[in-house]
Amino acid sequence: MAGSTDPAQYREFLMAGIFAQTVTFATAGAGAGIADDMHKGLIDRFRSLPMARGAVLTGRTLADLVQTALTLVVLAAVGLLVGWRVHHGIPKALGAFALLLLLGYAFSWIGALIGLTVRTPEAATSGGLIWLFPVTFVSNAFVATSGMTPWLRHVAEWNPFSATVQACRDLFGNPGVVPSEAWPMQHPVVASLLWSLLIIVGFRTLAVRKYRSATA
After folding, report:
1. In the chain, how long is the greatest CA-to-CA distance?
2. What is the pLDDT of residue 199?
3. DSSP result, 116-179
4. Which of these, 105, 135, 103, 131, lies nearest to 117 by C-alpha position?
5. Lowest mean pLDDT among 80-94, 97-111, 156-170, 173-187
6. Which is nearest to 204 in space by CA: 113, 119, 127, 121?
7. Is the pTM of this model over 0.85?
8. CA 71 to CA 87: how far, in whole Å?
9. How far is CA 118 from CA 33, 115, 122, in A?
10. Contact 118, 35 (CB under 8 A)
11. What are all long-range contacts of 76-83, with beta carbons under 8 Å and residues at least 24 apart?
């Protein structure tokens, strides 16, 4: 893909990045939803019910995951219409979509923490988008990292977002799997899983702790 000007190749190169960007931008909606629940006092009603404190956040993030899955189905259908194709079979393609959903679920916990921290849904939406722009643009989503300056390439190749994009291109059989010395780019599927699980564990812990202090 590096140096290619073929529109068909770039179309297939781009789709993995578009998929990943779509699932991660759902983070802002997750944060806004939780902030809205807090603002309207809905969370106060749950406090009287015999349930674990973290169950409310888990339910919210899982609901967002279902919505994200539906969005991916629509986006994949549109991608097929414009010429994007899967070349390594349905099982690997399903694995790629599973990695995308796992990344979206991981990032939704970041959104949950933001939603619990700010005071209004509008602030949650803004806070959920500001940090996403550098994460998605300093990556391999839209251009190959081989053309970046060395320091920026290093940042992009160790970006959790880039690992998932690279894994999807590998599993879809799309162009863009550029040789790299960075471990996440050499083992993108494993790196994507590890990054997503680490984000879930870390930010779920922080979000539940914040939720408990906010509703105490």
Report:
1. 60
2. 96
3. HHSSSHHHHHHHHHHTHHHHHHSSSSSS-GGGS-HHHHHHHHT-HHHHHHHHHHHHHT-S----
4. 131
5. 173-187
6. 113
7. yes
8. 22
9. 12, 6, 9
10. yes
11. 76/19, 79/15, 79/18, 79/19, 82/11, 83/8, 83/11, 83/12
